[in-house]
Every structure is written in structure tokens, then in C-alpha cells.
Write a structure and sequence with these properties.
The chain is mostly helical. It folds into two domains: 66 residues, Arc Repressor Mutant, subunit A, CATH 1.10.10.10; 45 residues. Helices cover 63% and strands 6% of the residues. It is built from five helices and two strands. A hairpin with a 3-residue loop joins β1 and β2. The longest helix is centred in the last third of the chain and has 27 residues. The relative contact order is 0.11.
Length: 124
Amino acid sequence: MQEPWRDDLPIYRQLHEKILGLIVTGALKEGEAIPSVRQVASDYQINHLTVAKAYQELVDAGLVEKRRGLGMFVLPGARKKAAVAERGKFLNQELPLLVERARQLNISQAELTKAIHQLMKEKN
């Protein structure tokens, strides 16, 4: 099945975020091989250079490594490193957008806090 790519972000960034999410959640474990560039390109019907660019960003971030003749592997400590980065991104980029949207809709701090608390409670 083909991935429904969004129009607001380049496909390589979306793929990068997808793999990053798999690392953060532990679906891709440290020391585990990630799917080959060819396999991902075939599965999602995208250009192999797009996949290679997403993978290179993961290498540059110190989350995966290339092992000559073997493929790409999740590095030890990658989950923690990715989680710290994603947490920072959420707190510094995504949360301010949420708060601004709440202000636009005249949602009080108490109402927003209550809604967030309820959602967090439901997920646990």
C-alpha cells in the first residue's frame, strides 16, 4: 500500500520523521537493521534518492550507521537521543503553535489545561 504523503513537507522529511518515530517508540530497536533503500523505495513507490536523503539525515543526526555490505543499523542510544530531540521540538515548535491557536479561539488556560489533562489521562 502506498503511503499518503502530505503536500506541506518534502517526502524525504516525512520519511525521516516516520523512521524517527519508529526509533522513538522502540518499533525499531537499537542494533536492528532498518529496511534497505531499495526496499523502502519499492514499498512506497518513491525514488531511491529520496530514501537515501532521508537515511543520510538519520546518519548525520547520529541515529543510524552504515555498515558496508550489511546495510543501515540503529545505533546504541539512538532512542534516547531521538526522544530528547523530539521532546525539544515539541516544546519549542509545536506547543507554541497549539497555544497560539487556543488564544485565537479564546480557549482559556484552565480549559486548555483541563483538555490536555483529560487526553493524557485517556492515553494512560
